Amino acid sequence: MKKCLLLFLILLMTLLPGEAQEEQEKQGESKSALTALALGTVIPGGGDFYAGKPLKGFIYFAIGAFLGYQTYHYWRESDKAYELYERTGGENDYSRYETAYDRTQQYLYFYLINLAVSVLDGVVEASLSDWSVENVHIEQARTEDGRTVLSLKKEF
């Protein structure tokens, strides 16, 4: 259940709209997708911070920090449990090691998903940073058979 909720939260972040006023202030200001890619790869949410979407960047960063901490915590737990198993040879100690190791893998997996979605979202946000709704026009035309056709055109 926690996994599904976490994936839902990560995917929801990609759908959050930016603030309209913030977009109007930065209209015409182009951002580099390559810079967003580099920043997002190093820090979850870094590409969104760069692209001017601090709320999304913070959410990706917070999720990444939580998952990174949990990965590290369970890695340390598995390391301690394995050392204890080597000393005692107990089945319970090995079971504790396996459980902690599995948790480490799970949290690392979700961390990497968060990082990948964050990087992709940052690159898209940077690529669309100079995109403005004011430059979009809808044109209507009628075909010979009487159907109405709508065209969406963007001025560059």
Describe the SSE topology:
Blueprint: H1 2-15, H2 20-25, H3 33-42, H4 46-50, H5 54-88, H6 91-127, E1 136-142, E2 148-154
Antiparallel strand pairs: 1-2
Helix pairs in contact: 1-6, 3-6, 5-6
Describe it.
- Helices cover 69% and strands 9% of the residues.
- The chain is mostly helical.
- The chain has a domain at 2-7 and 31-131.
- It has a two-stranded antiparallel ribbon with strand order 1-2.
- Strand 1 and strand 2 (148-154) form a beta hairpin.
Features:
elongated; 69% helix; 6 helices; 156 residues
A few lines on this structure:
By secondary structure, this protein is mostly helical. The protein has helices at 2-15, 20-25, 33-42, 46-50, 54-88, 91-127, and strands at 136-142, 148-154.
Q: Please indicate the percent range of residues in DSSP E strands (runs of 2 or more).
A: 5-15%
Task: State Rg.
Answer: 23 Å
Mean pLDDT: 83
Contiguous helical run count: 6
Broad structural category: mainly alpha
Instruction: Give the helices and strands as they follow along the chain.
Output: HHHHHHEE
Biggest beta sheet attributes: 2 strands, antiparallel
Question: How much helicity do the residues have?
Answer: 55-70%
How many angstroms separate the termini? 46 Å
Major sheet strand order: 1-2
